[in-house]
Predict the 3D structure of the following.
Amino acid sequence: MTDAVRQFLEHARAAQAGGAWVKLTLGAPRGGDPTLRKVLVRPVDLRAGPRLSFVYRHDTRDLTKNLEPEAGFTLMGELLGRAFGSAHLFTTETEVELQVPASGEPRLRCRSQARAKAPPSRHDRSRHRLIDPREARWLHALGVTTREGGVCRGMEAKFRQINKFAEILHHQMGGLFPEGGALTLMDMGCGKGYLTFAAYDSLRRAGWEIRVRGVEAREDLVTLCNGVAKAGGFDGLSFEAGTIAGTDPANPDILVALHACDTATDDALAKGILAGASLILVAPCCHKELRPHLRPPPPLRGALRHGILLERQAEFVTDALRAALLEWAGYDTRVFEFISPEHTARNLMIAATKRVRPRPQGLLAAAVRDLAGHYGIASQHLAVRLGFPLAASGADPGGRVGTGRNLPERGSEPTGSGFGVPPSGSQGAMPPSA
Ligand SMILES: C[S@@+](CC[C@H](N)C(=O)[O-])C[C@H]1O[C@@H](n2cnc3c(N)ncnc32)[C@H](O)[C@@H]1O
């Protein structure tokens, strides 16, 4: 390494240590990949600790690598001269320019500059936004942002929802998985993939080694999403055509199903539970199953002759049963508002985390049955999928069936279309059109 490169790296180290780093760019790429334009480097504060984030800017995509600071400076030293002919560092007080000509001595110039403000590290920014529209180019490919990174008119609510989902996902993952480790996520009924890309991109940028599979009934959406993933160079993100009920999720660490229609949410919940996913997130929609079967107790009969109240009550009972069944199956469950109802009516989220030590199932099973019994519900899709008889005359899941024997151990479901393995095709009925 020449003195000039060493001095440049010293400036960068000092800027990182003193919080004075404004911008660092490696430019004038030499050979190698003709689509690579430059590399942008900046310090970020991740939960795993400080890192240097390298964004490799290609013609149509960005690739991000987060490295521990010293590993980052070593990489920069290796890239300078070999892969890039110039580097610019802007700090709050200085501009440092390095030129490494193909032949001849490297030159370093320092100029003081008008005091600039250091941008906040990602940790500070992430409180507001995990998905930055200027960096996440997939948002443009999916029609959410303009080429320049502005949010398209009419897509503001979608953009807020995407960010809110990423925030919830990161928050719910807190403490569940080793920081920055390898993880698999399954998105059931992923539609146009907004939230699938959001999960993949935000977790990659946060340093996780994440692999994501999206499953969607509509082949046109699957083709679109695979095209966007390929163009973005998103290794480990794939989409496949199929139904939720007909897909083997293998052993995902995280399973999500957002706005999957009616009982498709139950299919997804059952898949997540039976596969032993550590975290399950669902945002249910169109609760059609229970409404015709509600037999409310006498005090509620008058109120529930009004269609809208019956509809809301059916939604409430459906989601309350889902939460109670998740608890019976060994999960801690939280139900909360996903996004303000002003943005979408489908605004409820159920988050379930698998308990290390399941609670005794007897009382939990009784709670499920009491709730179902109160509304005269004898059957519900998730209960059926889990082999949990709601009717009192059935087998007692709390005492006998529910001792855990009817819930397979994680990974005991047949495998075959695991992460990175081509899908085995779809089975089961196709859902109503989205
Ligand atoms: C309302 S969209 C939501 C898409 C995405 N999850 C989101 O929140 O942006 C529901 C999607 O789920 C798909 N879907 C519904 N039922 C399904 C099933 N049983 N199997 C696979 N896909 C399903 C639909 O085709 C549709 O694209």
In short: The chain has twelve helices and 14 strands. Residues 189-191, 194-195, 215-218, 221, 243-244, 258-261, 264, 431, 434 surround S-adenosylmethionine (CB under 6 Å). The CA atoms of residues 215 and 383 lie 23 Å apart. The radius of gyration is 26 Å.
